[in-house]
Amino acid sequence: MVDFITFFLEERELLIWNLEAQYELFRAVLSPEAAKLRKLEAEIMSADSSARNLKANISKIVKRREKEEDKHQSLSETRARLASASADFEAAQTYEVEIRNELEQAEVHRSDTRISLKQAQRETEEILQEYEEIKYRSLQHAFAGASLNEQYIFLKILSERFGIACGNDATDAAKHLEDRKNDDLCLVCGNKHHHVDPLISTASALNEKAAQVYNKLESARHRAQQREERHEEARLHYRETEQTLQRARKQVDDSRRSVRALQRKLPASDQASLARTEDEISILRREVDAFEQERATAENEIASLLKNLSEAMEKRRLEFETSFNELARSFFSEDVRLVYAPRKTRFGEAGEQFEFPAFEVEMTSAATDGNFIRRTQNKVSLSQQEYLDLIFRVSFLKVFGSGPGSFVVDGPEGSVDAVFAERRVISLRL
């Protein structure tokens, strides 16, 4: 907060174009678990760095082993076959890692489609409940004047397509009753109702409302069907990838057995040296897997915290954008607006991508007929950069601060153009 907000120095970072700094600030003011977020970020980067360093060591050892194998290759056909088998073993292990990563992505996609399907099903159920309620109210109007016993008989036919007296299917009778109801005829005799106007208006309004809700219900069912199909595709893809991984693991095991069988045919000294190298590689691979699992665990935990942070920003972003846009009108002759543009990135060089809250500025240009096209820092003048950064900081203090705010300014006055010469003095109540 002190580095990026309070000190308005000549050599400062321009906050409005520093997305990483924005994330640091929003995390500080919007996340109740900011300390835990920072701890998890450090764990992810540490595990990612350790895994990359170990992979680099593995690569060096593999190259050293390949050189040793190349050196002895001419000694016997066995060594040549061993070099080929070792290459196959490495390829099989690499392929297994790729399929394992693909399976993890397939699991994420399967989970996302399942959640999306559940949301669509819940939406469909809510609309169906609304539709059933309207149908019930419509039937109440249709049965005005009938006793409860008489209503029960007709409702039984309408809802279950069943004749309670004869025990036969009553689909045709139910359709006939529904046609009468839709035509606002008496369900019992088929004659026109002698309702007073309010009742007629109410029945017409209910029928119109029912038609609207039914259209919504059909749309919701269609969406649910589409999402169910996507979820089924994701589920099948996950299953196929899982089977592919099983085959890849079997291929690794077969390749390992082939390598060991050839190693046993070599002289004892060569066998011992290669065995030590293989053991060293295996140990390092297990450590890589452990660090990658540690990174994945931290990523799973941080995902929910970042989701909460994004949701908290969604509740405040309109207020923040409005404050910025209002202040910008005091300074700029062009139209300026702040837009919410979350960015996606990783904490390390590998692993999952996460969405972080961030804003960017858009400005019109006389050369583009007032279209919002200028977004990057090099598209605006130095004067505009100064005041955009200032407005962003002021808006941040106004929206997210709990009291008066202030800046510590150091350095000579920034150069301003003719437009800013008349606009540079402004009173801001924080």
Word description of this protein:
- This protein has 430 residues and is mainly alpha-helical.
- The chain has a domain at 2-46 and 304-423: Up-down Bundle (Glutathione S-transferase Yfyf (Class Pi), Chain A, domain 2).
- The protein contains ten helices and seven strands.
- The chain has helices at residues 2-6, 19-30, 34-72, 77-142, 148-160, 171-182, 197-263, 268-331, 382-400, 418-423, and strands at 7-9, 336-340, 343-345, 354-356, 359-364, 372-374, 408-410.
- The chain has a three-stranded antiparallel sheet.
- The longest helix is centred in the middle third of the chain and has 67 residues, at 197-263.
- The chain is flat, with a radius of gyration of 35 Å.
- The model is unreliable at 196-200 and 425-430 (pLDDT under 50).
